[in-house]
């Protein structure tokens, strides 16, 4: 039986799909599922793609019910040792380097991929922020039983280089805003990080990832004054702009004038110094040169030789 359920986002139709959790669940809307319930549901549909003789290292795309149209899911089965030694060069938007370890250890594991598309903000609401790209997720499960349901996730972590996520369909960033990578943990926690090359993020463990930007709604415009003040407001704006330009011009002119004054004072001081030096040189040239004599290995000025005439004392005796 199908029913129609209204949610905060939109009204959509619910199918009669059985969720295979061991019993038949009553029909419910996707909006009533939590993010963790969605993870369990997508794990089930991803594992369904591996039922018919899956090959190791091959990506298998799964199908989701009609009430989750737009969400994409895929599965990739790997050997634990191969994942650790070789990594995965390209799994959808994820690049998994060598050295990724899982806890607890299993011989084989399945990496389940999520792309929540336009459901991102519904399952992972983030007040005050806007998503610039759809949320993509990477979760790991034990591959011992591909028919298992409601499995517990493995804990995978990068021991060397981080896992790189190249987000698809990233929207342009509004002018003046700075985008951030965001990662959601399985426990509901989240943390921000810097964006790499405009559309990529990095992570050390599994989870869900996207790019967001902080968004503040613009303040409502003030109501116009009664009496049709639109024209007067426009004239007032032009007058204010004119005043601003006058102030800016005055400040710039004052700075230039002060700079010219400083240059003039520096030139005047330099001119006076040169003039004093020139006067001293002219005075030195007009003076009588002194005779030079060698004293040892150096030359030194000497006075002219003078001789006092001798006089007899008898000349003064009467």
From TrEMBL:
Top-level lineage group: Eukaryota
Membrane-crossing segments per the record: 244-268
Keywords, in A-Z order: Membrane, Transmembrane, Transmembrane helix
GO CC, alphabetical: membrane
InterPro entries: DUF1191
Name under which the protein is recorded: Uncharacterized protein
Protein's organism: Coffea arabica
Gene this chain is encoded by: LOC113696023
């Amino acid at each position: 039986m199908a029913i129609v359920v209204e949610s905060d986002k939109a009204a959509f139709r619910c199918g009669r799909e059985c969720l295979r959790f061991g019993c038949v669940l009553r029909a419910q809307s996707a909006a009533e599922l939590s993010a963790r319930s969605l993870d369990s549901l997508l794990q089930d549909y991803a594992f369904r793609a591996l039922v018919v003789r899956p090959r190791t290292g091959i990506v298998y795309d799964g199908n989701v019910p009609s009430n989750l149209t737009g969400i994409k899911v895929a599965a990739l089965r790997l050997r634990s040792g191969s994942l650790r030694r070789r990594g995965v060069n390209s799994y959808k938007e994820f690049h998994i380097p060598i050295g990724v370890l899982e806890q607890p250890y299993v011989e084989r594991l399945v990496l389940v991929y999520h792309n929540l598309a336009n459901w991102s903000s519904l399952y992972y609401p983030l007040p005050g922020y806007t998503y610039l790209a759809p949320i993509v997720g990477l979760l790991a499960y034990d591959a011992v039983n591909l028919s298992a349901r409601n499995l517990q996730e493995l804990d995978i972590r990068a021991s060397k280089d981080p896992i790189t996520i190249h987000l698809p369909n990233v929207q342009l960033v509004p002018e003046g805003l700075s985008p951030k990578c965001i990662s959601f943990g399985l426990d509901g926690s989240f943390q921000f990080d810097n964006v790499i090359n405009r559309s990529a993020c990095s992570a050390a463990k599994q989870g869900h990832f996207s790019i967001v930007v902080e968004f503040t709604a613009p303040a409502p415009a003030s109501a116009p004054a009664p009496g049709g003040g639109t024209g007067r407001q426009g004239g007032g704006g032009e007058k204010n702009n004119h005043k601003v330009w006058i102030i800016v011009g005055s400040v710039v002119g004052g700075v230039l004038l002060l700079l010219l004054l400083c240059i003039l004072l520096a030139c005047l001081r330099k001119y006076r110094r040169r003039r004093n030096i020139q006067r001293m040189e002219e005075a030195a040239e007009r003076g009588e040169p002194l005779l030079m004599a060698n004293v040892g290995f150096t030359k030194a000025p000497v006075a002219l030789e003078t001789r006092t005439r001798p006089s007899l004392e008898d000349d003064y005796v009467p």
